[in-house]
């Protein structure tokens, strides 16, 4: 065990967080919807000093042959080297790919987007929804920040105009992207005997196991991802699911409040 | 008939400017520069070890700039991430625009990385990026002889104007766009590119116009840097 991890565990055992936070909760969350005017939908999310921007672009494309009457969803996570001295230029790292995949799964499996409703002409033309998440500053918990920004951006999305031939991005159609659910992603980390949410960078590095839980409004779970090297007992898993569920309620409330503004 | 600018600005009038320093906590220095609807972030990391090693220069540190548009930043369709020939070239001219003032002789074999990111674009992106980068370098405490400020000038509808927006850039096929960067003292030009057809005299008029309006950019940069270091009434740093 390295010194930093020892110090993180010592701090947690004293009931404190590594950044001096007292309670075992999230840092302050700030959601700014519509932060990028050229995107069809966008949001900037800050969790403490961690900041990400998510933007949605839409286009008309040929559907996949196995889903000829469904719109397409794509999620990309860009670990911009601006956000962290250890991020480098080049193709996405495996941890960025994992975040993109988990955010994608949460949105896709919640069925919040009516993919059949995005079909224009079966086998020929469907809408594609492309969500890109860019990191501005990484102070830990990019997973939850990215998922929240992606969902907030979707809730803010207005479809561009389409005349059957070309997409006209300069004209908004006045049609909001219809959403049926508000999935909320919370990752719970196990460090020593402690279970925490919203880790700092140091806590993230010391994490032994993590569980990302995507929860719906009715309490059902629509996606999971276990990470870290340590195995978890069934009791530990259920405890982590419950912690995530509790925090997701407060975050959903905050998101819906921001959407009404 | 004289050309009227679509947004009603005067010939020498720049769009609204907003500049900030130190907005990215993890970076050694950072800057934010918005001009109209074009937004640029810049983050500086370094001096730090350079990889790959063959890029090391034993006589001085290397300045390395990367320019990137976020996938959702364009008014048209999605921009594929990972860069292209255009972004590589802009990174190169950005480096050259800043090298004149950045003094890296004290940092042999290392690199100062500048990452420029654009979340939202409406023409003048390389200029906004350079202006943000100059704030970020100063914020990082990199030794500099001077500040670099950047703005585009051009010819639209037969008129020489400052700070073209996208609507003006796309006005007709005769539009001329000239991105410029200047040192503050001495007004030396460190970035000069152009596309379109223009006479010798018009070119001189355009560059002179640029050297006149550039002080507005500098003032915003200086204010942003000073604001970061204001001591508040409790005697603590404003940060």
What's the short version?
The complex is a heterodimer of chains A (261) and B (239). Chain A is α+β, with helices and mostly antiparallel strands and 261 residues long. Chain A has helices at 3-13, 94-110, 142-155, 201-206, 234-260, and strands at 29-33, 41-47, 50-61, 72-78, 119-121, 125-137, 158-162, 167-176, 184-191, 194-197, 209-215, 221-227.
Indicate the topology.
The complex is a heterodimer of chains A (261) and B (239).
Chain A: H1 3-13, E1 29-33, E2 41-47, E3 50-61, E4 72-78, H2 94-110, E5 119-121, E6 125-137, H3 142-155, E7 158-162, E8 167-176, E9 184-191, E10 194-197, H4 201-206, E11 209-215, E12 221-227, H5 234-260
Parallel strand pairs in A: 4-6
Antiparallel strand pairs in A: 1-2, 2-3, 3-6, 5-6, 7-8, 9-10, 9-11, 11-12
Helix pairs in contact in A: 2-3
Chain B: E1 17-21, E2 29-35, E3 38-49, E4 62-69, H1 85-99, E5 110-120, H2 125-139, E6 148-156, E7 159-162, H3 166-169, E8 176-183, E9 189-192, H4 200-228
Parallel strand pairs in B: 4-5
Antiparallel strand pairs in B: 1-2, 2-3, 3-5, 6-7, 6-8, 8-9
Helix pairs in contact in B: 1-2, 2-4
